[in-house]
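The protein record minuted underneath.
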Amino acid sequence: VVMDLFGAIVHVDTGAKNDWQICIGTGFVMLAAFFDVWIMQRALAGATRDLESEQAKALDKLQVACKMQEVGALEHAVVFARFVDLHARTDGHWHGQCDRLGLP
């Protein structure tokens, strides 16, 4: 569709029609591939930011539940912490808190 619209605007002769269609098509595919990488990087950065925020909330819930010393609240906090993979963090701060709280 894009190549036909471009051809209608430019009025390319029929002898060179295939050549310019291949050039335009290749350029369109390369442009789409470039934007795909950019979009995936943005999506990954956003997902990482959201996961870190949820893990911080899980850690706060665990700390509050430990201070309250209520079994139900602690069980709920542990389930939430496992849901956001808090136990998978190995950057020191998170990992030490998980060890202290008895998470696997």
